[in-house]
């Protein structure tokens, strides 16, 4: 090899590739943990530090750990799963590209179960086990302890990683005086999935609930991600000596944990004060085999979650806890995922709710699916011209600094799970909105590796879940049912570019006639995700006050829109 050839190899990184081509990993689980074969996804993680554990370091941040993934079927104890340069990874696509050095390695087996669905498809998916679809903590998942290794340049190395640990079960939350928990088996979802499926909720009871047995209450659904328990409510104040050295980079705030604890106690004091309206606030548990949340709509891939929540879970809650049980006395709000759900519930069940407050909603128009127009763009990852391809950004801060690209986020998901099984954001949108593919899994909206958009799938999304398109298409009949009910809030520098779709929605709503929408759309100046409508306070405070910030608007809506003879007094003690 002459000097020029060596120089060219170094310039193009080929020498490093050649040196690393000899490194492989062999992963297995021990028969002390499981004696039967397992299906699932084996994940191999390399990190530069052992704290937190490597599995906790995988993210969209530039500091992310390196991860690789392989599907396994009927993997037996002690059977080896080999990771070499051919296995797809993130952020480096190949093990051959990982530079020599010292690392901590960890492996995880994310277990799949077999579902025989009503539609005739048999699929293997990670059933939720009480953790809200988190591969890091899912009970029963196997993992190894972090192991320090050294990858040497040019050396032929083979590392063995044994998954001899198992995640423990997660205890059920306990009832308190104010917070009650409910869990029901859903007939609709059980029929769809071919096995028992459950819905749950955490219910915050009003002060005086037991002392006023004659009272019936309005109900608010606080939509959002999987809640382990009712969050943001505490009967006790934070300890005076609570540590305040923690620092939240996003908000540039120190001592945020104590601030969060104080806000939770302040909410309790407001909730039990003399003049606070008495009502039920509900957080729903509807984790499923694809995500920590179903998006509260009916879906070909997830099943009839919208109807199950609306016609099974809510009536049971209102029966047990004396809800009024009529549309004029129901409201919904939430942010991000919960913001989309709040608006979608109002659109798909317009007579069942009297108002929605949607903060920083997930894309409510697929013409602005973050930074992609699904109906006009050909590729989700790149803006393409005749001589160059420019990557599309995936996340930013309020100054516009890009954290990652769309391609990087989606490749991370692809490593975590094929067939929309990553349990993460783009995959759940795909699982909720797409038709079922020929293999029984969601039909991809785009090629997960290349970003090429499927126009047929995009057309299906448009007709079934594009909220702006549906409102435009059906305004003649839908408009009168949602007039005065839709309130949308978003920061104009949302980290995920969610404000782009809100702009399009606002343009349509402002020109509506017969009837006019009579609602509200507002933006936070330079505000990031998830701005929720209060311009007088920083968002690191307002994001903790969802359960109080819309109360005045809810009361005004009840006063302005209720049927004759409605109960407006029993709950105002």
UniProtKB/TrEMBL annotation:
Keywords: Signal. It comes from the Bacteria. InterPro entries: AB_hydrolase_fold, Mycobacterial_A85_antigen. The keyword Signal applies. Residues 1-21 form the signal peptide. Transmembrane segments: none annotated. The keyword Signal applies. This is Esterase. The lineage of its organism: Bacteria, Pseudomonadati, Bacteroidota, Cytophagia, Cytophagales.
